[in-house]
Each structure stands twice: as C-alpha cells, then as structure tokens.
Design goal:
With 320 residues, this protein is α/β, with parallel strands linked by helices. It is built from eight helices and 21 strands. The chain folds into two domains: 223 residues, Spore Coat Polysaccharide Biosynthesis Protein SpsA, Chain A (Alpha-Beta Complex), CATH 3.90.550; 61 residues, UDP N-Acetylglucosamine Acyltransferase, domain 1.
Length: 320
C-alpha cells in the first residue's frame, strides 16, 4: 500500500456566510464540516493530514489541537487553491507517495468515494487522478473536458467556457489524488495568469497533462456529495442530507424512527437496536440511548444524556 497524506484546504473566510467563525467550523448535524472530511481521510489510511488554515486560524487549531495526525499549515494570504498547496511544499518535499487534496467545506464526502479515487489512481499508475460528478445543472462549476476517446484534456472554469463547453454536465468537485513528486514539479510551473492574480490547482493538472504525464478522471462522486457549502442555505441543505444519512444508518442498525421528517438526531448520538424514536424528538450531542427504549414524542435529550436499556423517556417524563 502506498504511503498517503492529505492536504485539506480550510483557510477561506467565505464572505457569503457573513460570519466571524471559520467556514469549516460551521456545524452539520452537530459536527464541524471539517470533521467529516478528516474522518473520510482516516478511513482510507491517510498517515498525515495537512490542514491549511488562514482566516481566524486560531479557532481551527484550538478545535483540533489534540489530533496527533494533523499538521497545521498557515496560508497568510489567500491567493488561490494551488497557493494553499504551495504552502505545504516543505511538508511533502522528499515524500514519494500519494497526496490527496480536498476541500474542508465539503462535509458530504464519503470514504467510499476516496477509495474509488485511490484505486483508480493506483491501478492506472496515474500521475494525477480526480473524481468527478455529473450534474443536471452544472452552473458555477468547472467543466471536465475530454477528447473523443474519453481522456481528460483539462478543466475549464465556467467563466472561460465556450457555449459548447457550457453544455458539459461533468464537473470538478475538487477531489484530487497526485503522486507527490509530480505535484511538486507542477506547482513550480504554475503562474497567476488570471483576473484574480491567483494560483489555481486546476492549472497544475493542465501542467501535468502537457508535460506528458498520465492523468485520469473517474466519475465517482454522487451529485449530492458534490455540494460545497458557501452560504447559509447550502449549510442547511447539507444538514438535511446528512440527517437522512444518520437516520438511514440508525434504521439499518435496528432503530425505529417513526417520523424521520420530524426527528433530528445528532451525528454523535448512539442508539441501541429495538429502540423507538417517536415524532418531534431532538437528540443533541453525544447522547447514548440503550436497547429497547422508547423516546418521545416531543422529547429533547441534551448532550451527555445516557438512557439505559428499557427506558421510556417522553415529553413530560424523566427516566423510568
């Protein structure tokens, strides 16, 4: 198995969020968005995670200071995605394995998708591989341009697309896997030749392609997983999608949720089989509920609540 490290881009301010809190610390179902990305990396055997921080960086560092596998890299000026990766050069110089590059504001990421990306990269002996998605409405995203044989030719940002390219529905949700030496070589050749005078990671792919290295694109990201969070409405939508996943997992493990649309369960909660969750129940934080319980209706369980097996907990009841 190849050695593998990850670079997670978490330095942005996000003016559309209208917030003093770093965007990646905004919560989805009780957990910061960044935590979901970290977990996905750990589940595919990433040995070290470089988290690029910038805006209000002390908040991010404080939140994850006890994580032994994280190294924080400061990006004092936000000059593009490739610039963020450039800030990590000292940590990947001399490294000969794989480098995942991901966004910290993509909480719907799945480890299964990363595994597909890594397997494709490894089996094809590619220098760079990206996971793509297909959207019915690709507005706002960079389009994946392929040749007549299906080989990737590059990524074109929407503002630079021709009318024909705007019809392309395959887009770039920013899941990358690079061979470290190739990535470092490409970073040295990128120039900020754009209106924003920024360094774009998509330009690294263009450099790698044009220098003759093999680049692959695998359509592996489900459409809803590609959602990045740039404003409060997208944060809410990500929360709804994540809530469905949480409840789906619990129901598959033997928990009855009578009315999923009127139930909210924190991602950190633990619930035993044959427990019934009645409508209008809110379970917050690291609550633990045993087997054969009945919770609700109209119940609120605070962070840290523990219900033993065979407990009934209703709207106006304590533990029984």
């Amino acid at each position: 198995m190849a050695d593998r490290i990850a670079i997670i881009l978490a330095a942005g301010e996000s003016t559309r969020m209208n917030t003093k809190l770093p965007k990646v610390l905004h919560e989805v179902c009780g957990r910061p968005m960044l935590s979901y990305v970290l977990d996905a990396c750990r589940e595919v055997a990433v040995s070290k995670i470089l988290v690029v921080v910038g805006y209000n960086k002390d908040h991010v560092i404080e939140r994850y200071k006890d994580c032994d596998d994280i190294v924080f890299v400061e990006q004092d000026e936000q000059k593009g995605t490739a610039h963020a990766v450039m800030c990590c050069k000292g940590h990947i110089a001399g490294f000969d394995g794989q480098v995942l590059v991901l966004c910290g504001d993509g909480p719907l990421i799945r480890s299964e998708t990363l595994k597909t990306l890594i397997d494709k990269h490894t089996s094809e002996m590619s220098a760079a591989t990206l996971a793509t998605t297909v959207l019915d409405d690709p507005t706002g995203y960079g389009r994946i341009v392929r040749d007549s044989y299906g080989n990737i030719q590059g990524i074109v940002e929407e503002k630079d697309c021709t009318d024909q390219q705007r019809l392309i529905k395959e887009i770039n949700p920013s899941y990358y896997c690079f061979d470290a030496p190739v990535l470092l070589e490409a970073l040295d050749k990128i120039t900020p030749d754009n209106a924003k005078n920024e360094y774009y990671l998509t330009d690294a792919l263009h450099v790698i392609i044009h220098t003759g290295h093999k680049v692959m694109a695998v359509t592996a990201v489900a459409a809803q997983d590609a959602l990045g969070v740039n404003d409060r409405e997208q944060l809410s939508l990500a929360g709804k999608i994540m809530q469905r996943r949480i409840q789906h997992r619990l129901m598959n493990s033997g928990v009855t949720i009578v009315d999923p649309d009127n139930t909210w369960i924190d991602a950190r909660a633990r619930i035993g089989p044959d427990t019934v969750i009645e409508p209008f129940t809110y379970i917050h934080g690291q609550a633990e509920i045993g087997r054969d319980c009945r919770v609700g209706p109209f119940a609120y369980l605070r962070d840290g609540t523990v219900l033993e097996d065979n407990v009934v907990f209703g709207s106006f009841k304590g533990n029984e």
